[in-house]
Specification:
The chain is about 45% helix and about 15% strand. With about 450 residues, the protein is of the alpha/beta class. It folds into three domains: about 120 residues, Gyrase A, domain 2 (2-Layer Sandwich); about 130 residues, tRNA modification GTPase MnmE domain 2 (Four Helix Bundle (Hemerythrin (Met), subunit A), Up-down Bundle); about 160 residues, P-loop containing nucleotide triphosphate hydrolases (Rossmann fold, 3-Layer(aba) Sandwich).
Amino acid sequence: MDNKTIYALSTLYGKSGIAVFRISGTKAKNVWQKMTHLDADQIVARKMYHTALYHSKTGDMLDQVMLVFFAAPHSFTGEDTVEINCHGSKAVIKSVIDSLQQISEFRLAEAGEFSRRAFYNRKMDLTQADGLADLIDAETLLQQKTALKQLGGTLLSLYDSWRSELVEILSLIEAYIDFPDENIPQNTVFKIENGVFKMIEEISKHLSSNKIDERMKDGFKVVISGPTNAGKSSLINALTARRVAIVSDIAGTTRDVIDAYVDIKGFPVVFSDTAGLRETSDQIEQIGINLAKEKIEQADYNLFIFDATVDGPEIFADYLSDERNYVLLANKSDRLNDEKAAELSAKGCLVISAQNEKNIDLIKDKIYQYFNDLYAQSSSHLITRERYKECLKECVDNLRRFNLNKEIELAAEDIRLACRAIGKITGQVEVDEILDKIFSSFCIGK
């Protein structure tokens, strides 16, 4: 990364009421000098100025805009920053870009470079940068809430506290490396070993409790399965409130897996309509049935649906287990008498009519309740990136290798590698921290 002042359009390109340009770097104030008639030396930070904007080369007027200056380090990037709020027509946007290109000290920002500079200038750590990316991509209120927590530093606080504890442990060990003839006091040994054991336990618990982290981004998998003509396609159409699948009385109409995305009270859910489960000699249909069985195994939640006028819940006996999360749906309630409906309810079935959309909201409530319970268990510190998991596992592996019975330099290296693994998550890995811990206990004259 060079030290040039960078610029970019921060809003979506296209016709809009307002477009925002961001310019960041030591020369950002040149916008005032070269594109306005205002005195740059008189500009007050964080005050909006209404002014005409001119082309930096031709001097042609481009637009009437609002400009604001953020002085370093009190800006998003930690550098001097100028934001231009102009009208969002394509013509205005193109002319402003052309004008900024003509300023020799400026260059177009690379993808993510504003956030990268914010990281380098200690305005955010890597977990907060990931949280910002997730916030931009959020499609549900729950995704937004989770991203805001991470952007606010919830993961940073947790991982930083673990890293600080490891730095403390490492400093205790490092202090004795230069004195091989001296035994480490027993109370120090206890403090080190207890600290390592505690760390392994906490990180392992954190890893095992995060069951919904990736699903919050990609969507929870809910699979609709059952025999042919059970009403699977009608059900996915009812759940999504749109015509996703073809509904037909012809058995085997659905041969492939059809996915549809739905927001259920903030939870991103991907419903999958699968081929009907039955014995068949049709090779193409058999492929779809095999895919359906795979989907059932991979699902976070299963909707087992059957035609209650023909079958009973026992047809799913091979698929029901304590490890699988599911609900049994007795479909075509409009063709059942009250006695039959009550009998099915007593067997744990939810009696519905997919075609008439009866009790569809109850299905959504069951799905929501299950995922909400999972979220409640893990929502304080969700692991939102696979990279975090890999680094945390690396940290635990190094801690498990640690043993004070080995050479003290090797024991210290185990802790150092564990500390570095966590540091890779946040982007904070500094040798000076260890030295500060060691020497902070010295008296002033030493």
